[in-house]
Amino acid sequence: MSVGDNMKKFSKKEMIFYVMTFLVVIIGDQLSKMLVSSAMILGQSQTIIDNFFYYTYSHNQGGAWGILSGHVGLFILIGLIAFGAMFFYFFKTNKSQRFMRYGIVLLFAGALGNFLDRVMLGYVRDFINFVIFGYDFPVFNIADISIVIGVCLIIIEIIFEDYIYGNSKIRSE
Questions:
Q1: pTM value?
Q2: Other C-beta atoms within 10 Å of 64: how many?
Q3: Which residues are catalytic?
Q4: For residues 26 and 49, what is the distance between their CA atoms, to the nearest angstrom?
Q5: In terms of C-beta density within 10 A (0-12 exposed, 13-18 middle, 19 or more buried), how is residue 28 classed?
Q6: How is the beta sheet containing 135-136 ordered, strand by strand?
Q7: How does 77-99 read in b/e, with b if 16+ C-beta sit within 10 Å?
Q8: Which of 23, 60, 77, 131 is the most buried (most CB within 10 A)?
Q9: With bands split at pLDDT 50, 70 and 90, how would you rate the model's confidence at 29?
């Protein structure tokens, strides 16, 4: 089955919704990063809500929490493989898997937002910083939020799959 055949599994309205969501995340992520990086110097922090929420401009050369810092090439390779897998699985889903589809769109958009930073700059620009109950969470960005929400939607789909579709393994196309 070709991508063209799989595209028929999506209504025009659904595809517009997915494309618009994708574009809002990518544009919002890149625009917010550009604004922060042009208005703040690296390491600068601006209080939004004292002892809770700050804009703190930082660069992350690794993955989540700075894991594997400095291995940008590895993240680019993993990103390319992940994009192929997400694209494949998105078109393998069926109409009833709304959480899965939307989750993949958000995951793809967020991953692409950070991927663009890595390719163009060699690091990811982060700026959203929360301190909750005295714990200073790692600084993150809009792409990271999209990734987390996307993964949560995919997990919800997987966990509640039997409840949503019944015990039958056969799903409607």
A1: 0.85
A2: 12
A3: 126, 144
A4: 26
A5: middle
A6: 45-49, 53-60, 124-132, 135-136
A7: eebeebeeebeebbbebeeebeb
A8: 60
A9: very high
